Amino acid sequence: MSTVYFTDFRTGSKGNIATKIRKMFETGGFSKAIAKDEYVAVKTHFGELGNVAFIPAPVIRIFVDIINGLGAKPFITDTNTLYRGCRSNAVDHLKNAMLHGFGMECAGAPVIIADGLMGNDYKTIPFDGNHYKELKIASAIYNAHVAVVVSHVKGHELYGFGGALKNIAMGCVPPSGKQTIHSEFKPRVKESECRACGKCIAKCPVDAIAYNANKKAQINQNICIGCGECVVVCPYAAIPVVWKTSHKPLHERTAEYVKGILDTKPGKWIFFNFIMNVSPDCDCFPWNDAPVVPNIGIAASFDPVALDRACTDMVNRAEILPGSRLYTSKGECNVIDKIGGQGWQSLFECCEKIGAGERAYELVEV
Length: 366
Ligand code: SF4
Ligand code: SF4
Hints:
The protein is about 30% helix and about 20% strand. It is an alpha/beta fold and about 375 residues long. The chain has 2 domains: about 1-185 and about 245-365, Rossmann fold (3-Layer(aba) Sandwich), CATH 3.40.50.11440; about 190-235, Alpha-Beta Plaits (2-Layer Sandwich), CATH 3.30.70. A hairpin with a 5-residue loop joins β10 and β11 (about 215-220). α1 (about 15-25) crosses α2 and α10 (about 245-260) packs across α13 (about 345-355). The protein is globular, with a radius of gyration of 20 Å. Bound molecules: iron/sulfur cluster (2 copies). One iron/sulfur cluster binds next to α8. One iron/sulfur cluster (SF4) binds near residues 197 and 200.
């Protein structure tokens, strides 16, 4: 059974949120996982422009200050997105981060986009899984000695909920890795958009792409291994992102990524979940609908499975806020089930089965 530490958002003259987070660091033993001069990745999500539900920069600064106080070197980080929004390359991503307050002035530490300018700065590691024999991890996160993953608990259109597990699996990998997690189906070229630039042909690791008689790129589905690189490299979006999937394989692939990423630095992953502004959709959307439950508190653990499990339990037990998307005249529903896809619990099962954490937890109030 794993321990999950929890505090609510009540503060007063005896202490503020920073005081509470510092106490969690000490009580949970998280400070001991960070040594002097170590590089510490503070992994968060800067929020797509138009979204304001993400964890604010001044809150991230509390973590930065704690890490600085331990003599280590924090940097704030995230990876580029698979879809073409405000965060699909490091230039746009950094602009987005700055507009949301993430920079030295407000967040207190440099921002590094972990997978580089165009999402191709990553480390490939071997993995013995059913879905993967190798995994791609963003270089800056891979190279950091410690990772403090600060996640916003909310709904998610695909997983049902978003928290620490998704912040590791999707959040620590480059866009091509995200594509392989998202779908088991292989990409196809949209001929009308192809301008025959040849970039996908040069990038494909197994020579699955060639020009057809119309001088348009064509993917040989028998050769393609579904690595996702061509989707990311095409400058004209002529190879669309493949979103089609089913929940079980999605959860299995996600669990394999979680396990492989955690194993890169055992005991050096620290997870904090903020159960506040629990919007029904992911922060990747350029909006955030009204919170579906009241702000609940902050939870932390070394075990992301136990942590997300505890947070989903707390959200599911909370009252549904009138006027939110989930509010019905009866006011009764399972929040996480309602805001997300079916079968969200299977992600916990898959993670536990592969040894990425435990579903059973003990909640310790700090
Ligand atoms: S990268 Fe895109 S535009 Fe260039 S050849 Fe491939 S599909 Fe066509
Ligand atoms: S997904 Fe990977 S293997 Fe398949 S065509 Fe694209 S680059 Fe080649």
